[in-house]
């Protein structure tokens, strides 16, 4: 036969009050019920915890030692309950996040940092995804993915849709224009981002130029946005980049909006509705309750 936490609670109350009636009132139970709890506890332990005298009740030597452990056990049980409650609310645990390191990921990462600051009991593990990834990896809870064009997003939230803009050297004749057309760049050399794992980036730039009526004179092919902007700043050419690239604030580069429709970059947070993780549920709740802003272009509601 085992005893329960309520037996320890009854014993601790009685040890502190040293009076059956007062201890029972403190526990909001009848005095006979408390007496039965103490008797059962002593029976299970095979020892006497109390000396019951006519005018007073006092602890035996065993009872004094047992009181220390009883209090410790109740405190541990209370702490365990608190951990369980926090875990149920998604305030403890681990969140595995995969993200694509593009210029449009900055607001998402800022939101992730805010989540971690507000829930320090949650461990956030970050995994970088290669450009060109189109779906959520199986071993992560949530993924931030950007892609050219639109998203079919049945499980997740589209965070932003942004257009392309022109990146020009600051001394370019059109650098101070409020808006230009892609065709205005027909005679300029182009610096194009071409990636082995995401050929769509280079193809999109070629496609926009072709639609505007010319074939771009690509004189520089690079594999990093930082190198692309550095080349533009050096006057080696112009570039068509996502609008969020302007947030990098590269010295020597002027960013100018493009007139008319352009290709777009969509960014989305993806998760699986079948995932029962309380931490994921908390993150999704916070994500839906908060606008992830900071990306130029249209912010699409959930």
Please tell me about this protein's structure.
This protein is an alpha/beta fold. It folds into two domains: 5-88, Arc Repressor Mutant, subunit A; 90-302, D-Maltodextrin-Binding Protein, domain 2 (3-Layer(aba) Sandwich). 36% of the residues lie in helices and 23% in strands. It is built from eight helices and eleven strands. It has helices spanning 5-17, 20-27, 31-45, 61-88, 106-118, 200-211, 225-233, 278-288, and strands spanning 50-52, 57-59, 93-99, 122-128, 142-148, 156-169, 189-193, 217-222, 239-242, 253-257, 264-271. Strands 3, 4, 5, 6, 9, 10 and 11 form a seven-stranded mixed sheet that branches. The chain has a two-stranded antiparallel sheet with strand order 1-2. The relative contact order is 0.15.
List its salient traits.
alpha/beta, single chain, Arc Repressor Mutant, subunit A, 7-stranded mixed sheet, 36% helix, 302 residues, 11 strands, D-Maltodextrin-Binding Protein, domain 2
